[in-house]
């Protein structure tokens, strides 16, 4: 994994405004000059300052979530695992003629 170079932008008010706008937008932004792509600036997720927007949960969402609790309670896990491995061995691709 390549660790990116760190550049402190505290003393760069224009750049700081741009980066804050990108963070608030929650989407990567492609920077261009004269139609040429120069860089992509991506907000960092997982830091305390930035988090991804979460969908609003309604009471119906919670009720649906709770309604499926225990659905797999009677499932024989050994049979389930065997079935998963058996299904993985079945090819779904067409044969290739060389």
Question: Which properties best describe this structure?
Answer:
98 residues; alpha+beta; two-stranded antiparallel ribbon
Description:
The protein is built from 3 helices and 2 strands, in the order H-E-E-H-H. Strands 1-2 form a two-stranded antiparallel ribbon. The model has no long low-confidence stretch (mean pLDDT 86). Helices cover 36% and strands 11% of the residues. It is an alpha+beta fold.
Brief rundown of the structure:
This protein has 98 residues and is α+β, with helices and mostly antiparallel strands. 36% of the residues lie in helices and 11% in strands.
The Rg value, from CA coordinates, equals 24 Å
What would the principal axes of the Cα set say about the shape?
flat
Q: How can the largest sheet be summarized?
A: 2 strands, antiparallel
Number of helices: 3
Strand content: 5-15%
Assign a percent range to the helix content.
25-40%
Total strands = 2
Enumerate the spans where pLDDT stays under 50 for 5 or more consecutive residues: none
Question: What structural class do the secondary elements suggest?
Answer: alpha+beta
> What series of H and E elements makes up the topology?
HEEHH
- End-to-end Cα distance, whole Å, is 38 Å
Strand order of the largest sheet: 1-2
Mean pLDDT: 86
């Amino acid at each position: 994994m390549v660790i990116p170079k760190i550049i402190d932008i505290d003393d760069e008010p224009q750049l700081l405004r741009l980066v804050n706008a990108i963070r608030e937008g929650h989407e990567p932004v492609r920077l261009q000059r004269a139609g040429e792509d120069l860089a992509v600036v991506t907000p960092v997720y997982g830091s305390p300052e930035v988090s991804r927007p979460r969908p609003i949960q309604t009471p119906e969402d919670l009720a649906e979530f709770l309604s499926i609790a225990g659905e797999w309670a009677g499932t024989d896990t050994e049979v389930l695992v065997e079935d998963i491995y058996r299904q993985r061995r079945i090819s779904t691709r067409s044969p290739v003629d060389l």
